[in-house]
Inverse folding.
């Protein structure tokens, strides 16, 4: 499924393996220790090879880790990309402890890092919706809102953002919101009230 801005930039939804999608940069759902893990993080490290972790080891020595709501960049190792943006999403508690703002900040940070590196295409997972427990539809609304706002900027170099979603439920949640048009900009719980 695709959504186009007025200037022809695209949001694309795919169900599948983010490590197999050829783009300029892959966003990784990382942990704050930048130490690898399961889910998307584990898949990216397995497919990208040890050079990604070696680069993260250097980053950890310099800055210690990555705060929630932010991201760091490495080379992509053996992945079909130039860069990996390791974004640290929030652990969901109840949505009233800054989680929406922190999740939005992850996406904004990655999009800004893409601009700094002249990236034209990015693949993105559903950050924080796995073991971090963020409700899928709320997370999708935040992600789509941030990406759409960025792609509509007149001066962006970014041309395409591919949401690579794990499983039918994730794909359908994103697709429902993308089809809804401008209403996807608000988190789902706010639209339903």
């Amino acid at each position: 499924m695709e959504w186009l801005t007025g200037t022809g930039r695209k949001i694309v939804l795919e169900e599948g393996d983010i490590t197999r999608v050829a783009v300029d940069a892959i966003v990784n759902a990382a942990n704050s220790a930048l130490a690898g893990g399961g889910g998307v993080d584990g898949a990216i490290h397995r497919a990208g090879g040890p050079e990604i972790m070696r680069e993260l080891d250097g980053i950890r020595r310099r800055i210690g880790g990555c705060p929630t709501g932010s991201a760091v960049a490495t080379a992509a190792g053996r992945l079909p990309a130039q860069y990996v943006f390791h974004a640290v999403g929030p652990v969901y508690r109840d949505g009233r402890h800054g989680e929406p703002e922190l999740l939005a900040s992850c996406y904004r940070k990655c999009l800004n890092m893409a601009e700094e590196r002249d990236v034209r295409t990015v693949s993105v997972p559903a950050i924080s919706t796995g073991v971090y427990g963020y409700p899928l539809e709320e997370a999708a609304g935040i992600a789509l809102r941030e990406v759409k706002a960025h792609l509509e900027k007149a001066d962006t170099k970014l041309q395409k953002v591919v949401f690579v979603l794990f499983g039918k439920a994730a794909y359908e949640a994103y697709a429902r919101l993308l089809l809804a048009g401008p209403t996807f900009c608000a988190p789902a719980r706010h639209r339903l009230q």
